[in-house]
């Protein structure tokens, strides 16, 4: 996990150092909710909102690359009494489509690295695991000023966890500022 975070930070730092007049660096913070398609839908619940930090680099008018670190919702299974915490690091490419002067839609595709860490197991077998997976998403951004925008998005990825395939869908709302 540390190697991935360091790699993302180094890549973002190199983008900051090579910033050109046509390109722009942006950062953002957001919160949202994640749903999990685990095999315990009636007894699993996700608590606490997701929190994420984003750092991106515009590659022109229509394209961006961005990195994101997220603390996803904790998941608790009430009958077996286990709980796990998950973190995610993501690198994605964005394609933007201008709808109006201040309104932009975007699609994104990338790869995520998700780390699952059991917190309470009460004797249940809950594996600690780290997974890479592809991610796709769509979103909408509204520019409040030339440098500040409100951004909402939905993204999904499928991972293998606890010997089953699980679809993870995240919905978030945040704010971003260009530098």
First and last CA, distance: 28 Å
User: Which CATH top level class fits?
Assistant: Mainly Beta
Counted by DSSP, the helix tally is: 1
CA-based gyration radius: 17 Å
pLDDT averaged over residues: 80
Largest sheet data: 8 strands, antiparallel, barrel
Strand content: over 45%
Question: What's the total number of strands?
Answer: 10
Assign an overall shape: elongated
Shape-level CATH architecture? Beta Barrel
In which range does the helix fraction lie?
Answer: under 10%
- From the helix content, strand content and strand pairing, which structural class follows? mainly beta
Number of domains: 1
Q: Give the strand order of the largest sheet, numbering strands 1, 2, ... along the chain.
A: 1-3-4-6-7-8-9-10
What order do the SSEs take from the amino end to the carboxyl end, as H and E?
HEEEEEEEEEE
CATH fold description: Porin
Uncertain regions spanning at least 5 consecutive residues? 15-22
Question: How would you describe this structure in keywords?
Answer:
single chain, 1 helix, Porin, 179 residues
List the helices and strands and how they pair.
Blueprint: H1 2-17, E1 25-36, E2 44-47, E3 50-58, E4 63-71, E5 74-77, E6 82-98, E7 103-120, E8 129-143, E9 148-161, E10 164-178
Antiparallel strand pairs: 1-3, 1-10, 2-5, 3-4, 4-6, 5-6, 6-7, 7-8, 8-9, 9-10
């Amino acid at each position: 996990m540390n190697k991935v975070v360091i790699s993302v930070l180094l890549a973002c730092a190199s983008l900051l150092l090579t910033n050109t007049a046509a390109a722009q660096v942006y950062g953002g913070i957001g919160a949202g909710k994640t749903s999990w398609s685990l095999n315990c839908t009636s007894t699993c619940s996700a608590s606490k909102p997701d929190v994420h930090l984003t750092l991106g680099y515009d590659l022109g008018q229509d394209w961006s690359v961005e990195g994101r670190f997220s603390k996803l919702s904790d998941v608790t299974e009430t009958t077996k009494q286990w709980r796990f915490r998950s973190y995610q690091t993501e690198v994605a490419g964005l394609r933007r489509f201008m709808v109006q002067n201040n309104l932009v839609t975007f699609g994104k595709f990338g790869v995520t690295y998700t780390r699952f860490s059991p917190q309470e197991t009460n004797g249940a077998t809950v594996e600690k695991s780290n997974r890479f997976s592809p991610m796709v998403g769509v979103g909408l951004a509204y520019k409040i000023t030339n440098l500040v925008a409100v951004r909402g998005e939905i993204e999904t990825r499928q991972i293998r966890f606890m010997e089953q395939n699980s679809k993870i869908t995240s919905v978030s709302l945040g704010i971003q500022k260009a530098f």
